[in-house]
């Protein structure tokens, strides 16, 4: 009976770890596969693999590193599938290099610092731009669906989203620079 309770408690703790890391999972996948409509499917696959491999995770070790290896593998699997369909046009070694580089760049401290800045920057957007960004990324909607909802062409939406993302990137950079320059 004690063993069942211990497993149940361990599974509960593991579920909490998975839930806590969902923004990291989503962010990592979107950063590596921007504009890919299957992001939710990839996230679901990642979560399934995490759950199925939970016995191989050693508690009190680096969960993010373990998680990133699973995400990396699932993204590579997706990329290979798309490569067979000729949807991606660069060689696997280039894509693998991108995956490695992004893994080394992701640091939770940086994300913890950028998220509040991003939220503030989003709040300063025009209402129309904010709604567009939220529809595209917070409640993932494809460009085709957005085009139908907004009565705008797909190309004009791509241009608008690019402009908004650039504006947000510059705003976040400015806010982080201001925070770094301000003594604590």
UniProtKB/TrEMBL annotation:
<dbReference type="InterPro" id="IPR036388">
    <property type="entry name" value="WH-like_DNA-bd_sf"/>
</dbReference>
<comment type="similarity">
    <text>Belongs to the sigma-70 factor family. ECF subfamily.</text>
</comment>
<dbReference type="InterPro" id="IPR039425">
    <property type="entry name" value="RNA_pol_sigma-70-like"/>
</dbReference>
<dbReference type="InterPro" id="IPR007627">
    <property type="entry name" value="RNA_pol_sigma70_r2"/>
</dbReference>
<feature type="domain" description="RNA polymerase sigma-70 region 2">
    <location>
        <begin position="17"/>
        <end position="85"/>
    </location>
</feature>
<dbReference type="InterPro" id="IPR013249">
    <property type="entry name" value="RNA_pol_sigma70_r4_t2"/>
</dbReference>
<dbReference type="InterPro" id="IPR013325">
    <property type="entry name" value="RNA_pol_sigma_r2"/>
</dbReference>
<dbReference type="Pfam" id="PF04542">
    <property type="entry name" value="Sigma70_r2"/>
</dbReference>
<feature type="domain" description="RNA polymerase sigma factor 70 region 4 type 2">
    <location>
        <begin position="117"/>
        <end position="167"/>
    </location>
</feature>
<dbReference type="GO" id="GO:0016987">
    <property type="term" value="F:sigma factor activity"/>
</dbReference>
<keyword id="KW-0731">Sigma factor</keyword>
<keyword id="KW-0804">Transcription</keyword>
<dbReference type="Pfam" id="PF08281">
    <property type="entry name" value="Sigma70_r4_2"/>
</dbReference>
<dbReference type="GO" id="GO:0006352">
    <property type="term" value="P:DNA-templated transcription initiation"/>
</dbReference>
<dbReference type="InterPro" id="IPR013324">
    <property type="entry name" value="RNA_pol_sigma_r3/r4-like"/>
</dbReference>
<dbReference type="GO" id="GO:0003677">
    <property type="term" value="F:DNA binding"/>
</dbReference>
<dbReference type="InterPro" id="IPR014284">
    <property type="entry name" value="RNA_pol_sigma-70_dom"/>
</dbReference>
<protein>
    <submittedName>
        <fullName>Sigma-70 family RNA polymerase sigma factor</fullName>
    </submittedName>
</protein>
<keyword id="KW-0805">Transcription regulation</keyword>
